[in-house]
Every structure is written in structure tokens, then in C-alpha cells.
Amino acid sequence: MPKKGKAKNTVNKAKHTRLMKQKENKLRLEKQRTKERLKAIIKKVNEQKENDNTTDS
């Protein structure tokens, strides 16, 4: 026979799901920021190399 009343653990499961989604989003954002930071650094270095090459010639 099924239990009567409120289902067990639904509040904890909802909390856990919410927290796990927050964690995933945080990791995704950190990864994206790191990528953007690296791209900016690489772009800056390439521009410096171009400037150095044009002044040397």
C-alpha cells in the first residue's frame, strides 16, 4: 500500500537539485571566463609581436 500524506524527501531532493545546478553554472562560468582571459592575453601578445616585427623591418 502506498504511503499517505506528503512524499518523503521531496524538499531535500529539490534543494539538492538547485544546489547542484548552481554549482554547475558556477563551474561553467569560471571555465568561460578563463577562456576569455586566455584569448585576450594571446591577442595582446600577437599584437605586440606584430608591432615588434613592423618596427624591426
Number of strands: 0
Ranges with pLDDT <50 over ≥5 residues? none
Q: Helical residue percent?
A: over 70%
Order of helices and strands: H
Name the beta content range.
under 5%
Task: Using the CA coordinates, give the radius of gyration.
Answer: 25 Å
Overall 3D geometry? Answer: rod-shaped
Which structural category do the helix and sheet elements fall into? mainly alpha
Contiguous helical run count: 1
| Mean pLDDT over the full residue set | 89
Largest sheet: none
Tell me the distance between the termini: 87 Å
SSE layout:
Layout: H1 10-56
Question: What can you tell me about this protein's structure?
Answer:
With 57 residues, this protein is mostly helical. It has one helix and no strands. The chain has one helix at 10-56. The chain is rod-shaped and about 85 Å long. It starts with 9 loop residues before the first helix and ends with a helix. The mean pLDDT is 89.
